Amino acid sequence: MPRNVATVRWLARMITPGAWLLLAAWGLTQVEPARLTVAPYARLFCFASLAAAGLLSWYYSQGRVLFSALVVGLAVWSLTLPASADVSKLAAAFLLPLNIALFASLSERGTVTPSGLLKLALIAIESVGVVMLGEVRGGPLEAFLHWSHDADGPSWIPLGQQLSFAAASLMLLGLVMFRRTRVEAGLLLALVAAFVGLRQTGKNEETLFYFGAAGLILFYEALEHGYEMAHRDELTGLPGRRTLKELMSHLGGRYAVAMCDVDHFKAFNDTYGHDTGDQVLKFVASMISRVRGGARAFRYGGEEFTIVFPGRSAMEARPFVESLREAIAMSGFRLRGPRDPDKKPEHAPEPGPDKSVTITISIGVAENSKKLSAPELVLEAADGALYRAKESGRNCVRLAESIPA
Asked: Which helix (H) or strand (E) segment is 257 a member of?
């Protein structure tokens, strides 16, 4: 697949459906009949979506989403303070993006954990401080919060708060590009929705629509996280066995299945350690995920991977897995601080002068037929072909015995 096409697909996956939810909120505010129809439910929609995001993220122990939903909800609540507490509203608007950027930058440590309790304490302290600021009159802090504030301008948000949103957005964008995960993309879109909502001066319903959209974006990211936990392998990032079974149960017509196994993986683990073994699995998974021919790759378990070729026979799939086998064997895997055990296990790969070792895989391929009509039978046949590849010396491809060579 060309790099630019892959980039566009990745970008589309990152921003949907958050971008569509944000666009829907904008549409509701632009169409007068629709806005008037849903206006009585704006507050319910806003707080219900934020509460749903918080509860679901708590259930999945997704602390970054939970605490982001909490600070967004507190920011909405600050807008309901008396007009005399404008400095509190400005403080909440200033702290909101900084908190979301902070939560996004930290590693996920769950919710009911020491790290989660510290974040909750930080939010509580900030909330008390914001309320107390409502009693402050004058002073450098209030001057800072009102910095470059134009009451007659297009937005009530002063320059300091706008810079806070801009800095947090740039940081989140960098995290999206660096980590390439959906959570940071969702937090970025939720932050954009909150900023647009804050700009709706004197339009309470529109503000609530946008904050509600932020809640729905966070709710979807928590839901996506739950799906990832159930269907995607955490180490390699590939879909797991559950997703494989779901796919194969819905396949119609002809398809081929390839079972792949890393050669001498136990000996490699015993020699160089489990951390290095994990790096090998990530390396092999990244190579398998690039297989062409309409293939879909999965981690089956341990050092085994499965590749499904919908619409192809085993003979048609063979050139693609042969290319995969050759590519892995020719790509030297560089060791990162290899361990030197007292007794080296047999068959462990020897590192070269540049501390790289050769990783190879064995592959067995089968296809569905009248005899192999059930997905379980096709997988069993592919596993049998993999066993023959191991017996044949490894680093080779073998077809199921029912398939002419």
From this structure: strand 255-262
